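ok so for the tutorial part 2 we go from a plain amino acid sequence to predicted structure tokens. step 1 is just haveing the sequence, like this:
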Amino acid sequence: MAIVASLVFVGLELRQNGEIARAAAYQARAIAHADSMYSTAANELALTAYRKGADGDRDSITPLEGWSGFYATAGALSVADNSHYQWEQGFLSEDDYEGLRVMLAGVMRNPFQRWAILNNPESMRPSFRELVLQIDEENGGGQAVEDASN
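step 2 — the prediction. this is what the tokens look like for a chain of 150 residues:
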């Protein structure tokens, strides 16, 4: 009986440790996401590049706006890649994964941000790059990615 009780206790400890690890991963992801959003919100040049891209006015994006937008997008992309990794490791729920897909699909509808994402393959893990390409295809991608950086 003592052995059974010990095994039950160990099982409960492992479950609790898993829950604590998932909670810590959620908290770290939320902080990283918020930091990325605050940084982008304060980056007037990146926001201008995003707006011009969304308005179909990519030709007027200055080099400084283009690079600022590129690096702001790369920062947000690393947060998304990490979230994808956390999902692969079982630390994010299916709902969170679906939220990640919806967010990426929305971002990639902006021609400038799509360009910035698809021209930054070396910063993505292979499985995340596959997800990005799948979402791009679902968005009607497959078109050539023009140079929007000027």
